[in-house]
Amino acid sequence: MRAFLIAVVVLLASAGAAHATDVTMVVRDVPLDGGRSLAAAPPARFDMVGLHWQGTGTPLFRTRSLAGRWSAWLAGDDDWGRDDSGWRKGNAEWTGTADAIQYRLQGKVTALRAYFLWSPIVKIQSRRLTIAGSPTIIPRASWGADESIRRDKVPVYAPALRFAVIHHTVNTNNYTPAESAAIVRGDYVYHVKGNGWNDIGYNFLVDKYGQVFEGRYGGIDRAVVGAHALGFNYGSVGIALIGTYDSVGISAAARAALVRLLAWRLDVAHIDPLSFVNVISGGNQKFPKGIPVNLRAISGHRDVYFTDCPGNALYNEIPSIAKSVAATGGPKLYAPLVQGKVGSLLKFTGRLSTSLPWRVTIADRSGASVVSGGGTGTAISWTYDSSKAAPGRYAWTIAAGSTVRPATGAFTVKGATAPPPPPALLLTAMTVSPSAISPNGDGVNDEATISYQLASTASVTGTLVNAAGVTAATLFTQVLPAGKQSFTFTGAGVADGPYTIALTATPAEGAAQTVSQPLTIDRTLANFALTPAFSPAGNGPAKLLTATFQLVYPATGVFEILDEGGNVIAKPFAGELDAGPQTLTWSGAMPDGSTVADGSYTAALVLDEPTGPATHALPFVADSTAPTLTLVSAKALEFRVTEPGTVTLTVRGTPWRRYVKTVKQAGLVTFWVSSPQPTRFTAVATDAVGNTSTAVLHL
Q: Would strands 612-622 and 533-534 be described as parallel, antiparallel, or unpaired?
């Protein structure tokens, strides 16, 4: 650890005619060789310090009060992550009035920049803000926000609020009620001028005395997009508790204020505080862009990013805070939703926190009720046929009495439109699967399923046509409605050979239409089976693709491998096959000497029959790529795996313990194990083919 002192040699210029609430900020690049530098010296006085640095290490600092006392050493935190140029951004620390600073470095720090703020303590305006049941909130104007520095003159809004993220500001817990506003003003200037953000990052801040401050500009009851949780700002509300709550919990006053704030804000958005929400990450070091993350409706910053925020003590309180939020206030309406298409059926749903009479009302532009429906209970479900509504704009309300905040919305019914043109084709999407059957009772490809789509009601006739073009059998004639249709053909009583299944559809008006698909009947083959997946060049146990079958008669056959486009890419076998059980294998070798690439393929056995070639095919997968397993958090036993399969965790100790988790998709895997907390463990991922990852060792 290295330590060095920057001398106090620069006097702060007079503020002149500046307003009493103006916050000044001085930026210094700190030399890391221990030398003295006029350019690196702090101003003559400051009361907040924020650090930015580069490197894998951590800077620490302490400050000297005007009385000459040095503070404890404080470590820089990088809750905000790295910017594109590699700078790590720490929070601004409230130091109280100070005139000198010292630094220490832990680990590798290649560049260090200090931001010194002077945020004077002044009496804030007495104006407070409350709307529609909100707690008392100190608005921006009252705590002295300088709106001229705000960059987003037009705020960014999400369509709806979905969840809350709890933070701590990593300030001292030793501050007065008057200093709280100074801390908020300092954070605002630091976030805009230091971090380069549009506004203060948080939507709300709460101090230990229970004061609630409006944060980012845009409306306290609107889904304003902040800058508090990288990748998860959209659709969230960020609430910061002023102070540091690693080892001490928040005060009773702060907890009560936080509960009131969350109860009101989540109720405005009709969010159940005890629910979970699936959020798609916008991208950060913990969750890459596009990864779905299951979050609590009230989460901590560490749930969405690599950080200790909001501190262990506060984070552990979140479940009980959520329960208190759910119990605060009157009955709640959760998750109101309208499903369906305007001009047809619209389904209104929701959930009440307790059983109550509820009603859904549709009103026209004048406010007059057009139709309504209701019921009693916790579940809300009502359907409205909007096809009967005249063109115009309509408002809807889901209400459950005067004690429940209603949900509202609107929709527009457009004028009549021309009917869609009639379908060009009556009968489409015909398939025969499999295209070759062996109806010998072995349970493998004994029958074929014929599927097709009708555009309108029609009389459909199915026929079996032989190779000479002669109808061998009429399978059915039936009037069928529009939509998907299917039937099964067993081949009972029909001789082996190549055939065609033909379908003729005749509508009530218009011309008939016929479509057809080939089908082969071949009883020479029985019990055809194939390895569903193999690992020709990987470390999985199945190195060979194996086909097994039984021939009733000797036959000439070809074993072919086809890609997804139906192209033959390899012929592992061609020749005579005796009657009886047979086994054919393929190592994955391609004609050019390479190994088949990972992917989905088809193995086809083509038998030369007296009636012509008969093809029997089954799908398989080639997978030689082992999964990748990485350790995300040793403390939380959290890993990231790149493909489905299983993850096996072996905890070393007395006794050794083994845990296996099935993984249905790539992403995070977390193990919950019995005490004691493991410190030595290994983990391995295995995919569906048996390929195994490099072991993760934590010993």
A: parallel
Residues 160-188: tens digit of each pLDDT:
999 999 999 998 999 999 999 999 999 99
**Separation CA 8–CA 98 (nearest Å):** 10
Q: What is the pTM of this model?
A: 0.57
Helix (H, G, I), strand (E, B) or coil at 215: coil
The 3-class secondary structure across 646-680, one letter per residue, is EEEEEECCCCCEEEEEEECCCEEEECCCCCCCCCC
Q: What is the DSSP letter of 194?
A: I
Q: Is 560 helix (H, G, I), strand (E, B) or coil?
A: strand
**CA end-to-end span of the chain:** 26
Q: Please give the single-letter amino acid code of residue 191.
A: H
Over residues 44-86, the pLDDT tens digits come to: 899 999 999 999 999 999 999 999 999 999 888 877 767 667 8
Token reading at 549: 């079958």
Cis geometry, peptide bond prior to residue 310 (ω within 30 degrees of 0): yes
Rounded alpha-carbon distances, angstroms, from residue 271 to 275, 276, 558: 8, 10, 62
Number of alpha carbons in the 13 Å side-chain half-sphere of residue 269: 24
Q: Say how far apart CA 304 and CA 283 lie, in whole Å.
A: 10
Whether the Cβ atoms of residue 271 and residue 334 lie closer than 8 Å to each other: yes
Q: Are 426 and 442 in contact (CB under 8 A)?
A: no
Q: What is the DSSP letter of 192?
A: I
* 195 backbone φψ class: left, alpha, beta (φ>0; ψ -120 to 50): alpha
